[in-house]
Amino acid sequence: MLKKNAELFLDNDRYEGYCVDLAAEIAKHCGIRYQLRIVGDGKYGARDAETKIWNGMVGELVYGKADIAVAPLTITLVREEVIDFSKPFMSLGISIMIKKPQKSKPGVFSFLDPLAYEIWMCIVFAYIGVSVVLFLVSRFSPYEWHMEEYEDGQLPTSESSNEFGIFNSLWFSLGAFMQQGCDISPRSLSGRIVGGVWWFFTLIIISSYTANLAAFLTVERMVSPIEGAEDLAKQTEIAYGTLDSGSTKEFFRVGHTHTHSPTHTQTHTHTVNDYLSHLPGYQVNDYLSHLPGYQVNDYLSHLPGYQVNDYLSHLPGYQVNDYLSHLPGYQVNDYLSHLPGYQVNDYLSHLPGYQVNDYLSHLPGYQVNDYLSQ
Questions:
Q1: Alpha-carbon span 143 to 161, nearest angstrom
Q2: Domain extent for 347
Q3: Sign of dihedral through CA atoms 101, 103, 107, 110?
């Protein structure tokens, strides 16, 4: 990475980072001289599916424009066919970085949250349906009809009346749902059966609503719409993508599982550079660190079932550590191990004050996931 004040330095002193220090230690041990430069197109390297031409750092190695690429370059089968890798110094999986979930604020209709929207709609239709059925049953049953009582001074009449008109039927169903009762009740057997079924239905609904309401009031609700690759594939509101010509994009492109096939169809034209290029003043490397409310390192640890280091191990058929070992004819390259006296782990341990796993976290402004996202 270029230093913030890189214009004040010359040659290799303009760069800083873990890979820069590692390259310096290897060069010191082997007695070689080198010059660092940033790849022209800013990509790690991928092969075009039609032209079969490589770009990025891999392309410069293939076509002889560079001798060594020093970067957190992911080892893949297609890259292994054209370039030589050292032993890996870090093993991590794919991470999904989104804005940290915000606490949900109570609103006017927050009392509807304990039940889903579909359930509320079913309750409304059931309420109307039961009221209509009760009205029709009362109309056809002779037990719901009775003679009107007349007061003193009025002439007797032979007209009969029915208390369960459409409005009284709606009122009876509403009173039963609110568990308040009503002044009228069915007299016929069919009407009482309809009323009993409705009472049992309201008992179950009210009990479920009360239990869920207590949980909503005691547990802090978090709005977390994305919890994995499956959620990304099922929605279209949140824009997402992968770095162009990177191993993550290639992973989703060649994936044949049902979950990741729709993901690739949406992500193959949406890359990080495409989105960030529309944001004035932002750079790819420090974009997330400047967004308020973002936590790069610890967000995934809060997602149920997902961990940063073992994400791929949950994907059927994929294992992070032993995936390459199952590729036919593949052997992990041990080029650096043949250097006299060289040991990868020994080199890292001799870097003053450095630790492999937490080095990047100590660099100001750098995060491990930022490196991998390139």
A1: 11
A2: 6-91+321-373
A3: positive
Q: What is the pTM of this model?
A: 0.41
pLDDT tens digit sequence for 287-297:
333 333 333 33
For the cut 50, the answer to whether the pLDDT of residue 201 exceeds it is yes
* Distance separating alpha carbons of residues 298 and 312, to the nearest angstrom: 17
Last residue of a domain, one of 185, 202, 217: 217
Burial of 357 (0-12, 13-18, 19+ CB in 10 A): exposed
How confident is the model over 207-234, as pLDDT tens digits? 999 988 887 777 655 555 677 777 777 7
**Cα R_g (the chain), whole angstroms:** 34
Number of folded domains in the chain?
A: 3
What's the full length of the chain, in residues?
374
Contacts of 350 (CB under 8 A, 6+ apart): 25
Query: What DSSP line would sit under 87-155, residue for residue?
Result: --S---------PPPPBPPP-TTGGGTTS-HHHHHHHHHHHHHHHHHHHHHHHH-GGGEEEPP--TTS-
Look up residue 280 and give its two tokens: 């004035």
Residue range 182-198, pLDDT digits in tens:
888 888 898 899 999 99
CA distances from 34 to 11, 20, 26, 60, 211 (A): 10, 11, 11, 16, 68
Last residue of a domain, one of 246, 279, 304: 304
